[in-house]
Amino acid sequence: EEGYAYCVVAKETVGKQISIAFLERVKADFKKRCGGGKAGTAIAKSLNKEFGPVMKEHMQYIIDHVEEIEKLLKVKAQVSEVKSIMLENIDKAIDRGENLTTLADKTENLRSQAQSFKKQGTQLRKKMWYQNMKIKLVVLGILLFLILVIWLSVCHGFTCSNN
């Protein structure tokens, strides 16, 4: 990082997380003490006197506080897990929002189709009613015509007498 490589050699029993915690502490302290170009202009091994005891202090701190560091690392892991779950839930919520938008569009489409169907049904009902009335009027006209024809044939005209 920033041109520096940080590494640690440790026994396997120490665990990677403890080693990483040590490196993080050393890196932060190194940046604080030797930042701003001081380390960049230093000659090889010239910082050993100044930074060697500091590294020893960090090692001792890590050894003395292993349980606390492990608890802290567990909490960090849990926070990271919760964060990833929350991000996943947010993604799902966004997907649901898109699905809701699609569903709303489909609902609007169905509503407009229902209105169109209702309008066509009303028009069809009126058309059928008019056709029915036409048929009834034609039948009535035919009946009246037949009655007139029968009347005229029985009465021999429009004046009918009882003779």
List the helices and strands and how they pair.
Elements lengths: L15 H19 L13 H17 L1 H90 L8
Helix pairs in contact: 1-2
Which terms would index this structure?
163 residues; mainly alpha; 0% strand; rod-shaped
Tell me the major beta sheet.
none
- The overall pLDDT average reads 85
Strand coverage percent:
under 5%
The SSE order reads HHH
Provide a count of the helices.
3
Instruction: List unreliable stretches of 5+ residues.
Output: none
Main location: membrane
Membrane topology: Single-pass type IV membrane protein
Transmembrane segments: 135-154
Domain Longin: 1-55
Model description:
- The protein is mainly α.
- The protein starts with 15 loop residues before the first helix and ends in an 8-residue tail after the last helix.
- It is built from three helices and no strands.
- The chain has helices at residues 16-34, 48-64, 66-155.
- Helix 1 packs antiparallel against helix 2 (48-64).
- The protein has a domain at 1-64.
- The longest helix has 90 residues, at 66-155.
Short synopsis of the structure:
By secondary structure, the protein is mainly α. The protein is 77% helix and 0% strand.
